[in-house]
Write a structure and sequence with these properties.
Elements (H helix, E strand, L loop, with lengths): L1 E6 L2 H8 L1 H11 L5 H8 L3 H13 L3 E9 L2 E8 L1 E6 L20 H25 L17 H22 L33
Length: 204
């Protein structure tokens, strides 16, 4: 089972967003189970659960983990193909965000468009690397800082911009024949606390 996988197909995305199928995915992420075992947990008839499982299996969201005999019946044990799923903007290709349409470093919506492109691009890279059975060279840095004031945050952003820009100028080799382009995304936003209403998020 993968830790996380990206859903690019619109029909697979629709299947994962169905409340019942989402519940089944959550149950199967915890361990293999049969339709009969899941029926009691989700409060549905076994036949109905089996119908949903077949749809999830058709879209590659669950897979066969094994079989077992129970009386005169052979039960199929299913498991989720990943512990969690992310829906790529490719699932809504005609309306996916395009950060190249406008650039505003102080816009939260532009940041959202950048994040969507990050999910789309990395998801596609993972898919390609998996098919080619190759490792994907990536790096991510995650941290948290508390600013004493809005002025401190502005100074931090200014220094961050200058530092990252200097590194890009230092290592950028546009004329290198054996080089490979890499995208760099840096974001700074207020931390979202667990169960914190959106309206209470500091919008300074």
């Amino acid at each position: 089972m993968l830790d996380v996988t990206v859903i690019e197909d619109p029909e697979a995305a629709a299947a994962s967003l169905d409340p019942i199928r989402g519940r089944l995915l959550a149950e199967l992420a915890a361990g293999p189970a049969s339709a009969a075992m899941l029926a009691g947990k989700v409060g549905l008839p076994r036949q109905k659960v089996n119908y949903h499982l077949k749809s999830l299996e058709r879209h590659g969201l669950v897979e066969l983990a094994g079989e077992r005999r129970k009386g005169n019946v052979t039960e199929r044990l299913m498991r989720a193909t990943a512990a969690s799923y992310v829906i790529s903007p490719l699932a809504l290709a005609s309306v996916q965000p395009d950060p190249d349409r406008f650039r505003d470093q102080l816009s939260a919506r532009w940041m959202l468009a950048l994040g969507a492109r990050l999910v789309r691009d990395v998801g596609s890279l993972i898919t390609g690397a998996t098919k080619a059975r190759k490792r994907l060279a990536t790096f991510a840095l995650d941290g948290e800082v508390r600013f004493a004031s809005a002025a401190d945050r502005a100074a931090f952003v200014q220094e961050l911009t200058a530092g990252v820009s200097a590194l890009i100028r230092k290592y950028d080799a546009p004329d290198s024949e054996g080089g490979r382009d890499h995208r760099i995304v840096v974001a700074v936003h207020p931390t979202v606390k667990d169960q914190q209403p959106t309206r209470e998020i500091d919008a300074q």
